């Protein structure tokens, strides 16, 4: 596998060379560059060498297959999960989802840093919760074969003042992206929590089966988006004072 790009210019050029088109390359670059700038190298440029080795369907496009009151269903159609979630977010921002909407995306992988997607929605004024499944890499705390993906959960709450609050947590002590970036060894990919790892594993199992029940056997994603009726973030930031809150790019000053 090739080395990760060293610069943003190289990263974009290599994404463009995948042959997915300028629009798709721009979507992918924005996601990877955002992760890189936030210090999440495992979801940043380190993903590009991995993508270069995947059998890509260059003509694939995600499709919204149905829309009912409160529920949208999408299918990746062979497109990268990044592009499916980008299409989902574009659609929700362009068409008011109403008080609340559940979006089920089947055949949606890889999905990248889920916090990136919910942040987009929060910046548009929506409260959002997103989870997604991935290849089985997480063993039970007692050891044995991997049973679930790292199955992250991301939550974003918009704010009338400043940036939204974004919490994005993987159920693994490290992520597969950390392994790809060389920041962790494969054997470190276990449920987080040490002696309390059964809690992270329980959540990983619950999310695995929740998404599978709605999206099917292939890897998928489930998103809940709603228009909040309250604005709790400014008061919480004041309460937290100089504590760095989830999703903040740098420590906040009082």
Automatic annotation (TrEMBL):
<dbReference type="InterPro" id="IPR043144">
    <property type="entry name" value="Mal/L-sulf/L-lact_DH-like_ah"/>
</dbReference>
<dbReference type="Pfam" id="PF02615">
    <property type="entry name" value="Ldh_2"/>
</dbReference>
<dbReference type="InterPro" id="IPR043143">
    <property type="entry name" value="Mal/L-sulf/L-lact_DH-like_NADP"/>
</dbReference>
<dbReference type="InterPro" id="IPR036111">
    <property type="entry name" value="Mal/L-sulfo/L-lacto_DH-like_sf"/>
</dbReference>
<protein>
    <submittedName>
        <fullName>Malate/L-lactate dehydrogenase</fullName>
    </submittedName>
</protein>
<dbReference type="GO" id="GO:0016491">
    <property type="term" value="F:oxidoreductase activity"/>
</dbReference>
<keyword id="KW-0560">Oxidoreductase</keyword>
<dbReference type="InterPro" id="IPR003767">
    <property type="entry name" value="Malate/L-lactate_DH-like"/>
</dbReference>
<comment type="similarity">
    <text>Belongs to the LDH2/MDH2 oxidoreductase family.</text>
</comment>
């Amino acid at each position: 596998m090739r080395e990760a790009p060293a610069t943003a210019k190289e990263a974009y050029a290599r994404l463009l060379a995948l042959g997915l088109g300028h629009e798709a390359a721009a979507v992918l670059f924005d996601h990877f560059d955002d992760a890189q700038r936030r210090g999440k190298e495992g979801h940043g440029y380190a993903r590009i060498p991995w993508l270069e080795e995947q059998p890509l369907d260059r003509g694939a496009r995600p499709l919204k297959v149905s829309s009912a009151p409160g529920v949208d269903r999408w299918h990746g159609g062979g497109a990268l999960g990044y592009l499916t979630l980008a299409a989902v977010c574009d659609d929700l921002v362009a068409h008011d989802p109403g008080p609340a909407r559940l979006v089920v995306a089947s055949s949606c992988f890889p999905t990248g840093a889920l916090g990136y997607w919910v942040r987009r929605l929060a910046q548009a004024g929506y409260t959002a919760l997103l989870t997604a499944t991935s290849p089985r890499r997480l063993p039970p705390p007692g050891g044995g074969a991997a049973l679930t993906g790292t199955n992250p959960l991301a939550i974003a709450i918009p704010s009338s003042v400043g940036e939204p609050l974004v919490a994005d947590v993987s159920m693994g002590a490290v992520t597969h992206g950390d392994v790809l970036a060389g920041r962790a060894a494969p054997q470190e990919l276990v449920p987080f929590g040490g002696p309390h790892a059964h809690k992270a594993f329980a959540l990983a199992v619950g999310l695995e089966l929740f998404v599978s029940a709605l999206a099917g056997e292939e890897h998928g994603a489930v998103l809940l988006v709603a228009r909040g009726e309250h604005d709790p973030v400014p008061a919480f930031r004041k309460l937290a004072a100089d504590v760095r809150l989830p999703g903040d790019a740098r420590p906040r000053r009082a």
